[in-house]
Amino acid sequence: MDRDTFIITVYCLVVEHYHQLTKPLRLRHGGFAPGLTDPEVITMEICGEYFKLQTDKDLFGYFHHHYRHFFPHLAERSLFVRQAANLWQLKAAIQQRLVRASGQAEDPVQAIDTLPLPVCVYTHAPRDRCLKTVADYGHCAAKKLDYYGFKLGLRISRCGMITHFPLLAARPHDVNHLATLVEGFAGLVPADKGFIDAYRQQQLQHRDGVTVITPVRARMKPSPHAPTLVAASRRWRKLIETVGSHLTERFAVARIRVHDLWHYQHRLIRKVLSHTVCVFLNLRLHRPPLDLDGLLTV
User: Fold this and answer.
1) What is the rounded CA–CA span in Å between residue 151 and residue 231?
2) Within a 10 A sphere around the Cβ of 289, how many other Cβ atoms?
3) How many CB atoms lie within 10 A of CB 153?
4) Rounded Cα–Cα distance for residues 4 and 17 (Å)
């Protein structure tokens, strides 16, 4: 599809789920009604992230210049940015609703991993005044990276749709976040070596029905799981690396620059929502779910 068709398709999808979520609610109790509707704002955010418009200024400028005929009430950037930030809970709810509507929430196999989220250049960390009380120093062994910021926890279905994405502290080792990453899930969980912990894995299996499957380190006993299951888990685990690459390269989750945690979470949610919408549309169109580039023909 071309860009115009993509924007219209996303708008129709947002309207459908927006009305289902807000039907029993009254979102605004006073003040002037905004010029743009909430579905219009959310549509612009989703499409802007997919088009690699990483800042609010770039996103607003693009739609103001190229798509005023789609959004005729798009007038002032500050009003747009404020309205978009205030809708963060609704965007998170739409993301979870899409996961359920696609059937991916019930997938019995969901892989987990974490992504480093630097909030500034490492050498500037001692001078940070924006996120000083919540950000921390961390280390990513896979990328051999020391950074200052957070971790993004990821849990994905076998088609690559993000089903859970908690914002985590950077300093603790990945295995300390295991319970948070599998929260509300029961089934098979492929994971990398960073999640090896026999005691925690046994606890999760007996208490919650979660079977964590990890590769074995040198000098460890062979895996208790069947070789075919271990090989399949290795393939499923590679999908989460692809999703991590999407978030890092197309959606720039490691380059969010804001002044407080509230705006940071809002920007992170809209990036994950944009990725989820793209995977959802690919599933509807019977295309490879993680072929995001192929959604647009021009």
Assistant:
1) 27
2) 21
3) 21
4) 20
Task: Using alpha carbons, select from 178, 195, 214, 188 the residue that is nearest to residue 141.
Answer: 195
- Bridge partners of 137? 148
Q: How far apart are CA 64 and CA 80, in angstroms?
A: 11
Note the pLDDT tens digit of each residue in 206-248: 888 889 888 877 777 777 777 888 888 888 889 999 999 999 9
d(CA 255, CA 294): 24
User: With 0-12 CB in 10 A as exposed, 13-18 as middle and 19+ as buried, what is 178?
Assistant: buried
CATH number of 229's domain: 3.30.420
- What tokens does 62 get? 């693009």
Same domain, 190 and 68: no
pLDDT digits (tens, 9 = 90+) for 20-76: 888 766 555 555 567 789 999 999 999 999 999 988 899 999 999 999 999 998 888
* Helix or strand holding residue 151 (H, E): strand 145-156
Question: What is the distance between the alpha carbons of residues 192 and 200, in angstroms, rounded to a whole number?
Answer: 15
Question: Which pTM does this prediction carry?
Answer: 0.92
For residues 179 and 158, the answer to whether their CB atoms sit within 8 Å is: no
Q: 75: helix, coil or strand?
A: coil
Query: Quick one: 248 and 173 in the same domain?
Result: yes
CA angle 37–43–49, rounded 5-degree value: 140
| DSSP state letter for 133 | T
